[in-house]
């Protein structure tokens, strides 16, 4: 019994790192995929070295052009920039109108 406890502790100490570094089956983008997307964006007019002032707008415009080119070519692979679209969330809320003789705050 005395030898069993240290053996379990050693086995657990060796098993925990192996379990904690297990990779999931879902992988991110590969280096080649990221490079291919960057080349597509550069062909669409995006220049990562010079677009520091208008960075988000220029990148989003290039992504929209790439998406439009892919949709025009019939590519629906799902890789690349998100599809351009619109969304609507509802009407604007109008502020409540308060009559001139009404007080907004009550109290002392």
TrEMBL record:
One Pfam family from the record: DUF4148
* Stretch forming the signal peptide: 1-22
Task: Provide this UniProt record's keywords sorted from A to Z.
Answer: Signal
Q: Which InterPro entries match?
A: DUF4148
Give me the ranges of the annotated region Disordered.
70-95
Return the protein name. DUF4148 domain-containing protein
Species: Paraburkholderia silvatlantica
């Amino acid at each position: 019994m005395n030898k069993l406890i240290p053996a379990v502790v050693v086995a657990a100490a060796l098993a925990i790192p192996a379990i904690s570094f297990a990779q999931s089956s879902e992988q991110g983008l590969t280096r080649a995929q990221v490079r291919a997307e960057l080349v597509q964006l550069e062909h669409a007019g995006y220049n990562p070295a010079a677009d520091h002032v208008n960075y988000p707008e220029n990148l989003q415009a290039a992504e929209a052009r790439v998406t439009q080119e892919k949709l025009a070519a019939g590519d629906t692979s799902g890789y690349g920039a998100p599809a351009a679209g619109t969304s609507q969330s509802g009407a604007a809320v109008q502020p409540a109108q308060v009559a001139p003789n009404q007080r907004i705050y009550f109290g002392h």
